[in-house]
Design brief:
The structure is a single chain. The protein is mainly alpha-helical and 96 residues long. It is 72% helix and 0% strand. It is globular and about 35 Å long.
């Protein structure tokens, strides 16, 4: 997935996922940065390509967690890990 495709996906879906965040633009930057790091590390270490669908499903998982629901079942380990990375980063910096 290219940086441009990732940017467009997160920008289009980020607003609905991050409605309750105080600074959505800062949250979007975190999502973008962490996704790019994860994408590059995944490809380097396993040769696996992070797809738009993987990112979309991870965003769905993040949205459920932010709504207080459990992480959805049926996510691949990579999708679940990406959602967890986002959740950890967003909640770590929530008060800042």
């Amino acid at each position: 997935m290219s940086n441009d495709a990732l940017y467009l996906l997160i920008q289009s879906l980020g607003a609905q996922v991050l409605e309750h965040q105080r600074n959505p633009s800062g949250s979007l930057a975190i999502l973008m940065s962490e996704t790019l790091k994860f994408r590059d590390k995944l490809k380097e270490e396993t040769g696996q390509i992070l797809t738009v669908e993987d990112t979309r499903r991870a965003l769905d998982g993040l949205e459920q967690c932010l709504d207080g629901r459990p992480m959805p079942s049926g996510l691949t380990p990579e999708q679940q890990l990406l959602a967890q990375i986002w959740l950890d980063r967003l909640t770590l910096f929530k008060g800042k």
